[in-house]
# Entry
Amino acid sequence: MSEPLLKVQGLKTHFFLERGVVKAVDGVDFEIKKGEIFGLVGETGCGKSVTSLSILRLIPSPPGKIVEGEVIFEGENLLKKSKEEMRKIRGTKISMIFQDPHTSLDPVFTVGHQIAEPIELHQVIEQHLISAEEVPRKVIEMLKLVRIPDPEHRVVEYPHMFSGGMKQRTMIAMMLSCNPSLLIADEPTTAVDVTIQAQILDLMRELRQKLGMSILIITHNLGVIAEMCDRVAVMYAGNIVEQADLKTLFKSPKHPYTHALLEAVPKVGTKKGKLASIPGMVPSLITPPPGCKFHPRCPHAMDICRKKFPQMSEIEKGQLARCFLYGGGAKK
Ligand code: SF4
# Structure
């Protein structure tokens, strides 16, 4: 778990609208090592999903555009690849699980057909890894891998005959059918209940172990992060504001926004009372506040925070924060 599989550097993705430029991702850096589970966490609208769509070059353009940065995957910059090369990479090396399995599966085709399709395209036609005759066996194998009971019979069923959890596991089977080295899971458990959530997370951990792939988890849910991740980056208004290994982030958070996020998590056993919430609103990404974008909501804001944009500084080995309380070498 040492060599980076993915390295995102200085990534900026903006949306050019009539009312102004939405700087959804505004200078993001992180890397994911081989076999690592990396979490990107933050409130809705902080730029997490735009970051993952940028990695896959799936930003709707116009109005979206990756305006700066590099996405180095297995040593090559994905932002320099042609559309055709990216289509192949998306089908074979990087896969993405979206939030809602109910809308991601096509209701008019059997689940077996939907798992077979990417296998036929990538493994039979493009890469000649298996023959067309072997596809049905491979489909059953994938359904077994994601623990669909009685796969030989259920393979001919339609998505509406599957429970929410089984649909999500079918989605995972589709995404894993081509052995990707990176799986991107965008809010993988938002649309399912807590029991199913636990099963899906358990399955993803097991698959990482079995298949040795890296996983990027995008979520607003710190519980999912705590269950799954080796390292975590916290995003706020288009920037990463803190990055650390899981234990350090939960035991010794540094950035005031990370503190606020952790305090907003309801704790079992605490007395009935008011649930902590982060005061204030997520800022506009068209006209963000000057200086530190968190300053209007920060209980520790100082004069410098209203004027200068803080840089990332390393606080301890592997723990970085973008805050003047910890250096934050001013820029802008
Ligand atoms: Fe708060 Fe200032 Fe740190 Fe921003 S830089 S989080 S405003 S203390």
Summary: The radius of gyration is 21 Å.
